[in-house]
Amino acid sequence: SKHRAWWKESSVYQIWPASFKDSNNDGIGDIPGIISELDYIKNLAVDIVWLCPSYKSPQVDMGYDISDYYSIADEYGTVEDVEKLISGCHDRGLKLLMDLVVNHTSDQHEWFKQSRSSKDNEYRNWYIWKPAKYDEQGNRQPPNNWVSHFQGSAWQWDEHTQEYYLHLFAVEQPDLNWEHPPVRKAVHDIMRFWLNKGCDGFRMDVINFISKDQKFPDGPINDPRTPWQSGDKWYANGPRLHEYLQDLGKILIEYDAFSVGEMPFVNDENEVLRAVQFGRNEINMIFNFAHVDIDHGKFGKFEPGSWKLTDLKDFFERWQTFMYENDGWNALYWENHDQPRSIDRYTNASEEHRLVASKMLATALALQAGTPFVYQGQELGSRNVPKSWGIEEYKDIDCLNHWKKIPKEDTAAQAIAMQEYQKKSRDNARTPVQWSAAENAGFTGPGVKPWMSVNTDYVRINAEAEIKDPNSTYHYWATVLKLRKEYLDIFVYGNFTLLDKPSQKIFAYTRQYGDQKILVVCHWTDKTLEWDAASNGITSVKQVLLNTYEGVELASQRFTGEQWALRPFEAV
Ligand code: TEU
Ligand code: CA
């Protein structure tokens, strides 16, 4: 990558406030709880903290349904607490990102209350209202066939004003009408408000959905079993997206702010580059989805799916290459609040191999070119929820709406769904952070019932134990992130070349800058393996910088000959 920038050199730690740390024993994580653990975050060697939505919200979708952008949810704290969090970060040389959720609001936002009150209210145009269509039998139908991301039609009928409104997510999350200039102005004002408070930038929720094709055409029929089809063709990266992003970009540049946009359904390289190419001044980087959708079924994520290591490698190779060649930039992530735990999604590691497998995943990801993101608990090698969990433990609207659609008598479908939830539900990432082996994993006080059950493995997997153990996943992440900075030219600005492309067991790549080259070899199986280094062009290794099993001195004696003996999930 040609251009240097502080946001390329940084790494990010993501916080899900409800489950991070509870300071006042009400069972819900809060901002004072985050402030009390800033040293824990700093010691992970990250540079930036991303705070998931903490604004006032009815919490239908865990804060992604905002009812007031200028105040903080009571359960999390106050605006003053956020100011303290910002200064606590800045005191430690950390930056703070906030979540900007502006494709939609809560239906409890004052704008929407006004908008739905009458057709001639001045806020009517702030949302997307359409008259009904009628089928041949004269039955009322939504304006088009778009499906909501949380099941069912994306249109909700409003009795009072006799029109439908669009909600790409929950019924309680009406989409804003970005065609209407006052909406855009309101978003700009929100950004400036938080930037003026010292916030250092934004993670932008589904930012590529904000411009919809104004003809609102039907989506192509992909799933013949239902009338509701994905309309992403008509609202993902829509006609005016870049105009809107240029406007946001002007504000971001003014404050030298960080920006990462969430962009589902975008696979076209040129379209991605229009958003992130250096000098276009839209956003710094995007979250793409191909690697996290890898285990989804044909008709959605809660259907069984399968994948091969080469699928993952192809994805990385493609994005690494086109970004490098075109002066774009990648956001690197395995996990976030919408995804299951990486160790359970990307490896078959048993508990015996949890430690090495989690370190291997850290190595594979964070030494690529891009800005690495670590999601709370990932630094501990956290796992998915227990297989024994029943449906009553799950809290996420995405999963529960899916469950409601399964007929009560279809026990076979229920059994499959339960298996898939344990593999892919967003709840896997949302259990409380495991701070210690004390009751409630130290997340909240003894005797308190946390808002969501703590994963039963906290006695083994917790921060207190990992901080004490220099061999832990936590310290390994810090080592990787420091190494990335130590060899900044190579790891941040160097090129990427995939080695041993056809292997289903090895993910190996080199990074090169000038005549300096670093090789990264990740062994993806739970067996031992002889890897033919020589036939992949590795004739000599000058120095071993990192190993998931032992100190680099011992390791350097092992990686010498033509064949390398790799242990389960070993990375070097
Ligand atoms: O997610 C957008 C998104 O498209 C998915 O990752 C979504 O979670 C998935 O389709 C559900 O199966 C963002 C946020 O990250 C997510 O937490 C919010 O629920 C969503 O937008 C709505 O704001
Ligand atoms: Ca609390």
Automatic annotation (TrEMBL):
Keywords: Glycosidase, Hydrolase, Maltose metabolism
Pfam families in the record: Alpha-amylase
CDD domains in the record: AmyAc_SI_OligoGlu_DGase
Gene3D superfamilies: Glycosidases, Golgi alpha-mannosidase II, Oligo-1,6-glucosidase, Domain 2
Residue ranges of every copy of the Glycosyl hydrolase family 13 catalytic domain listed in the record: 14-430
InterPro entries recorded: GH (IPR017853), GH13_cat_dom (IPR006047), Glyco_hydro_b (IPR013780), O16G_dom_2 (IPR045857)
Lineage top rank: taxon: Eukaryota
A biological-process GO annotation: sucrose catabolic process
Matching SMART domains: Aamy
Any one GO molecular-function label of the UniProt entry: sucrose alpha-glucosidase activity
PANTHER family with a match to the protein in the record: ALPHA-AMYLASE FAMILY MEMBER (PTHR10357), GLYCOSYL HYDROLASE FAMILY 13 CATALYTIC DOMAIN-CONTAINING PROTEIN (PTHR10357:SF232)
Family note: Belongs to the glycosyl hydrolase 13 family.
Protein name: Glycosyl hydrolase family 13 catalytic domain-containing protein
Species name: Penicillium vulpinum
